[in-house]
Amino acid sequence: MTASVRILLWCAGLAIAACLVTYPLYANGYYLALGISVLYFTILSTAWAMFSGPTRYISLATVAFFGLGAYTAAVLGETMPWPVVLLAAAGVGALTAAITGLSTLRLSGIYFVIFSFGLAELIRQLVIWYEVNIHKSVGRYLFSAVTQDVLYWQLLGLTAIVFLVGWMLGRSRYGLALRAIGADETAASHSGIDATRVKLGVFILSATFMAVTGAVMAPRWTYIDPAIAFNPTISFQVVIMALLGGAGSLFGPVLGVIPLVLLFEVLTATLPNHFSIVLGVIFVFIVMVLPNGVIGLFGPSRWRVPAGGPAAAPARGSDAPLLAVDGVSKSFSGLRAVDGVSFTVTPGEIIGIIGPNGSGKTTLLNTLSGALRPSSGTIRLGGTVLNGLRAHQIARLGLARTFQLVRVMPDLTVAENVAAARLFSTSTGSGATPSELLDLVGLAKMQEAPASELTYIDQKRLELARALALQPRLVLLDEWLAGLNPSELETGIALIAKLRDRGLTIIMVEHVMDAIRALCSHCIVMNAGSVIARGTPEAVLSDPKVVAAYLGGDDA
Ligand code: ADP
Ligand code: MG
Fold it and tell me: Of all atoms in ligand 1, which is nearest to the CA of residue 404?
């Protein structure tokens, strides 16, 4: 961009800002009211998209927070200074979001949608109950000195803040973490991202904006009752506006707000009785024709991956076990999928786990990586007991994994997938940067491609790069070589050998015996949840017990 273009853009920006700020001075009553509607829906839908855009948790609870804010203003508005009222509304919104978020953000998909809708209704009923039984009147009057002009300026200020906060969030590690969670929550957790905490934090942030908007809007009505403050149509309108504009980017929602506020104005004037039907039709239309919103037509916005943080060199040379698994069992309602497994792994070695399908190999890896809690037994990584720790905590301790059914974060780029595993890294050593890792696995040229567009083998490579990005002390590979053709297999084996030579410690579950022979110093053989043999690859593969187990299984 040349200097003159930049100056021109700045001038245009300043001119627009000046128009917006002085709008009440030249807009009359009707147009000012329209401006107020545009602003308050802009704040609500931008705040909604802040959380729901990346995570795809469709929330219909907008009006719950908005209404609580409006009620806070109605209760406190005449006795307290206005800034205190706004702060109180923010506090009520944040607290309610924290309490409800903790209990519901484990739900996903349609369950969350229904719960969020129910939440708004529940809060409305609670407020009605309180007003009727305690306050002894359903509605409240709020006489305040706030003029329409001042209301407009407050909303404009809040709009600026919501965009600023959204912009900062998008550039912070929490922005990428949230998108990683939306793309694949399990993979994100095993990459060290505390999904519950990140989701809760952004949910609270978004709800706080909604509550403050409700408080700012309250004086507009003079008389407030639950039907006005908790009108569920608002939640639906916000979703529709954000989806029309595009919930995946900061300025998407506002592109949906402007045309729809105008359309809703026309509709309430001309078709007041059919408003809901038209709303529904628009909703269906948007989902079918513009799944990524208007802004999606211009291509996705990407997180800028930083030049690359430091990576720790793996430790090597000690004989103390890096991993000690002692009597670990895991039962699924009576079925002992893993039954009293014990083994140790010393730094720098590759351990192979083999056994027929269904013998408990994946379940064992799941208990090590925190995807499952062991029913009994102890797991220690470098002396730290892993039992009871959650997946992201174990990942941050340096235990990385890949999945038997390959899991990448499909809407993130290749580079973003790797960067996601670096977000919460606490390591301060030096080592490979994300682009060096992509180079190592042979994806250097694909950095900007969405992970969903990669071939199967490239997705496997990406998973490995993401695991390495954690700067792990131990990597678990679950049939990482499965499904590769002979030449890919050769490359894959060479790659794992290279990692071993760099000192990385690996546990690999594998059916490809050539790989086991070429790579592993040690093997354990599982059958029906138990270890039936252990030793060098040559020794165990010629053990009659092992041969019998394989012949008895459905896979050889
Ligand atoms: P492997 O990886 O060796 O093929 P798995 O660990 O996937 O074996 O499975 C071991 C056994 O545990 C199988 O009988 C499987 O059906 C059962 N199993 C695995 N995961 C679950 C689960 N989440 N719930 C119930 N049973 C499971
Ligand atoms: Mg398996």
Answer: 2
If pLDDT is split at 50, 70 and 90, which confidence band does 145 have? confident
Q: 117 is written with which tokens?
A: 């809708």
pLDDT of residue 144: 75
Rounded to an integer, what distance in angstroms lies between the CA atom of residue 94 and that of residue 76? 17
Looking at domain 323-551, its CATH superfamily turns out to be: P-loop containing nucleotide triphosphate hydrolases (3.40.50.300)
Q: From residue 377, give the alpha-carbon distance in Å to each of 326, 335, 340, 388, 396.
A: 6, 17, 7, 11, 22
117/100 Cα distance (integer angstroms) = 12
Which residue's alpha carbon is nearest to atom 12 within ligand 1? 337
For residue 553 and ligand 1, the question of a CB distance below 6 A is answered with no
Closest CA to 172 of 207, 211, 205: 205
Residue 179 CB–ligand 1 contact under 6 Å = no
> Which protein residue has the closest C-alpha to ligand 1 atom 26?
332
Closest CA to 230 of 68, 89, 75: 68
Q: Alpha-carbon distance 247 to 269, whole Å?
A: 28
Give the residue from 158, 159, 134, 156 showing the smallest Cα distance to 75. Answer: 134
Is the predicted pLDDT of residue 325 greater than 90, yes or no? yes
Going from N- to C-terminal start, the domains of the chain cover: 10-231, 323-551
Question: Terminus-to-terminus CA distance in the chain, angstroms?
Answer: 61
CA–centroid distance, residue 428 to ligand 2 (Å): 34
Return the ligand 1 atom nearest residue 526 CA. Answer: 3
Does any ligand 1 atom lie closer than 6 A to the CB of residue 332?
yes
As a whole number of angstroms, the longest Cα–Cα distance in the chain is: 91
Does position 299 have pLDDT exceeding 70, yes or no? no
Structural tokens at position 216: 């700012």
What's the token pair of residue 235?
């939640």
**Per-residue buried b or exposed e for 283-292, using 16+ beta carbons within 10 Å of the residue's own CB:** beebeeebeb
Q: Is the dihedral of CA 546, 552, 553, 556 positive or negative?
A: positive
Tokens of 281: 């039709």
Strand partners, 323: 345, 381
Strands 140-141 and 223-224, sheet pairing: antiparallel
**Under 8 Å between Cβ of 154 and 218:** no
Cα torsion angle, 38, 42, 48, 54, sign: positive
C-alpha 261/C-alpha 237 separation (Å) is: 9
**Residue 311: pLDDT over 50:** no
* Residue 52 confidence (pLDDT) above 50: yes
Helix (H) or strand (E) holding 366: helix 361-369
For residue 354, the cross-strand partners are: 525
**Cβ atoms 336, 504 nearer than 8 A:** no
